[in-house]
Amino acid sequence: MITDEHQPCLQGMFPSWLTTCSAAGEPNTTVISQIWYVDEEHVALSFQFFNKTKKNIAENPYAFATIVNPGTLEMYNLELEFDHSETDSELFDDMDMKLEAIASMSGMSGIFNLKAADVYKVKSLKELGS
Amino acid sequence: MIPEQTLEALTNGFGHMGSASVDLKTAHTDTLSASVDPANDTVTSFVLSFLAGPVLENFKSTGRVSYFVGLPSHESYQFKGQFIETRQLTEDELAHSEQFRNAAQENLVGMGIPAEPAAQLFGTAPDLGITFKVEKIFKQTPGPEAGQELPFN
Amino acid sequence: MPNDASATAADQIQLNDLTKRLERKTKEVEIIQQVSSKINATLDLENIAKAMLGLMDEFFGFQHAMILLLDEGEEALRVLATHGYDEEGVGARVKVGMGVIGMVAKRRKLMRMANLGQQRAYMQTIRQQVKQTTDTELQDEVPLPGLADVESQVAIPMMLEEELVGVFSVESQGVNIFDKGDEMLIGILANQAAIALQHARLFQREQQRLQELNEAHCELADLNANLEQKVEERTAELLELSAKLAKYFSPQVYDSIFSGKLDVTIQTQRKPLTVFFSDLQGFTELTERLEPEVLTELLTHYLTEMSEVAIRWGGTIDKFIGDAILVFFGDPVSKGNREDAVACVSMAVEMLERLESLRSFWRERGVARPLNVRIGIHTGVCTVGNFGSEDRLDYTVIGNGVNLASRLESNSDPNQILISEDTYLLVKQHVRCEQGEAISVKGVSHPVQTYQVIELVNASARKDTKLEEVIPGLSLALDPFSLEDHEAARQLLSTALKWLKPKVKKSRGKK
Question: Which residues of chain B make contact with C172, given a CB cutoff of 8 A?
């Protein structure tokens, strides 16, 4: 589902936004800096803090995300379903590396601890407006 | 009384309104500014109706609203509450939206986004207002206080 | 049915596209080869790096690039060369783990960043929040080498056989400038660079070692040149030192040591020696009655005079113990047992004579009490040599012989020389003696026969040939041996006799 066309959206060059909801149906919308490409059918989110999003996903695995092409501002909506968390993989290392590189430049080494790379299955991918 | 500190982000920030369906599937749509009714603690966001369909459906079935607004400085808030109604936007509101949309374009271009897509994205005026009653407000500015409730009333 | 024309057109477009791509690829390979060969042509570390970076701009448009090398300690990287920056920045340091370059070094993985400005702004927001709302201690933001407003960056680890050599970094102020193709290109070049740099580094190390050797060589040459001067200086020092030491050794021993004949180690040997022992009688009383200054002067005078006599006769002055003197003959130099013994006794006799003049000298100075010396001399086998510890050696003599000389001295009368039978047997032809008492000495099984020295034979022989008389009105001293003009002497005496002709008395009478 994810093709080359979408790659620029998954570089962290433009924020993405994500909506989850609790088991009781209470929605939560947040903006995140990057949704990571895993493969054609999967994306990943960095799990750093225990926040509402994480709590919701624990109760309800479904999420809705919008990714943006930074050059064209084309937007895509993704229906996601939480799959699994990774801590010992190349994906995790890449996430961690990037996080640490940026954090260290601002004198904040060690403040961000990547807990896991949360991998989601992409159920659908639609361009906005289509 | 919606705290004054949130007004800038509400009225001039990038907004995304979220919803949940009965079977816990979520959807959101972007807003092009919003207005506040302090007397009633309601917020009306400005949306493009042709994009807001799924979200409106959810509001009608579950009524629960999440509304994230953020400024380019990263100052952000999330409002949560109960859907009330959709309505037409006033002249003032439309005027304000235009102001917001122009500023947004400038912002994006300033970020390195090409002018044309920015114009395309923010060129269209909103044609619908979604009003909801604010029940809770959360700080969302990235940092140690993100997720903390901002008390009001 | 597909339109043949359009199909052909589509094919044509695809063909053109492929051809273009092939051309580009070929060009790239050519360029890489050129760059690589230029890199490997030189062995100078910094020049290689700089050349590389220049070429990368020339061929691929990488306008801002730098190469960093991993420090020996592997804790930081150091900028080796830069291209396209205002300041050279060479030598600037990046800690492993710090920033993009630091993380690439830490994880040994390439990183491609597209919008650093935005990412950092985001971080700054959080930093502000952390500062404002928590007590968390934040590290200082360390300025890293590179573009201040960098947006895009590709940083690649330079590896050589699993070892990290350094990091290659390319930057741009444009957002999302680099793509996967650039990554690959830079990666290839980085590899080449790693190899070339490693070679150059090794070469540099060799050069350095060579230089160090040269320097050492020069130092050695310098040292040789200075050596003569140093030797002179050292010799002067040694002479000074030895002059000081001279006071503590008897001249003979000192000479022996410095002539090399006597080795300054703990060495002793048993030899026949003639040992002389003397001390001043009545000295103890003097110490009570005289001022310390006067006493010191007296003692020094006495010892100096006696030493002079000893040295002249060739004795080895062992030591002074207050007013007592121990001298021995036969070591380190010996003229033979007999000669040594005779010399010793002669020395003792002269010491007595010398003491007489000292006595009058001191009497005039107010020391009424006369100084009398007792002397004992014995010839026998003693142990002589360096005794003591490695740091402090004493050249001295020990043994029963020494004890005997000491006992003889205590049994001697004042201003007398008492010798043992062993000595007497050696010197009797040169020294007239009188038999003394037999004394018992510890360590000697039988009593020791002693002899008192009367006079030296030569001296008495000489004495017989002299005529010295003093009577009121007449003082006569005649030494035929030293008389040069016998005729003049006879004339003189004749004249004297005429003066003394008795007066003739005229008798009256009887015929």
Answer: none
